[in-house]
């Protein structure tokens, strides 16, 4: 799936690596899941060891999507993986490369990003920079004056107060702190560094990374707080030891304490943000 995305031809319905804007249109044509189908599987029986060959018929949804792709090729801008015999041939079309938007932030910083939504939060749409060094998150709704002032303070005075003093270089390793405020198409946005490599799994899951999270699966807290996830899924090399766990706790405590000393608080300190 990631290979399809890297070729600029994402799989329809892929919420993680796919085309967000295009995926929003899929329910209108009856697709409410990823466009994948295991037509044939070959494996050995877990008890007897005998070879098994399993086949699954195409469901109505898949046949309907192939029909739609044939009738309206201009709307088909996905990689329809697995064109099975007996179905109308799907129309393959690469998406054009997204344009690069260039803006000047309030602090004079030049900000560039692809004009394509790559992720979404509860309030913002997220765009990626060409070099992958930072992201730009724009509010979907119009931001009020208080929000603008707060962001300008966080990226300005508070940022300088925390990182411009003694120990600032150490704190830079604890935060992904926003760097600038921008405006585009009437929307307010904030620029923030992309996660460093240490935020992602180096070894991934067990059995040669059976879950495919190596290098791209972010280390959410759920992987480490859940006993089932730790024992069943994660590669033992990802688990660390008691000393590393203690260091993580100390770094979290220092990061939160420094924010409180600066007059700030974290509104959502949880599995996804710590």
How does this structure look, described?
It is a single chain. With 274 residues, the protein is an alpha+beta fold. It contains 11 helices and 9 strands. The protein has helices at 2-6, 20-23, 60-71, 145-155, 157-163, 168-172, 206-209, 222-225, 227-232, 236-239, 242-261, and strands at 40-44, 51-55, 100-104, 110-114, 119-120, 124-128, 134-139, 180-184, 187-193. The protein has a 5-stranded antiparallel beta sheet with strand order 5-6-7-9-8, covered by helices on one side. A hairpin with a 3-residue loop joins strand 5 and strand 6. Helix 4 (145-155) packs parallel to helix 5. It is flat and about 65 Å long. It starts with a helix and ends in a 13-residue tail after the last helix. Mean pLDDT is 77; it is low at 73-95.
Task: Produce the secondary structure layout.
Blueprint: H1 2-6, H2 20-23, E1 40-44, E2 51-55, H3 60-71, E3 100-104, E4 110-114, E5 119-120, E6 124-128, E7 134-139, H4 145-155, H5 157-163, H6 168-172, E8 180-184, E9 187-193, H7 206-209, H8 222-225, H9 227-232, H10 236-239, H11 242-261
Helix pairs in contact: 4-5
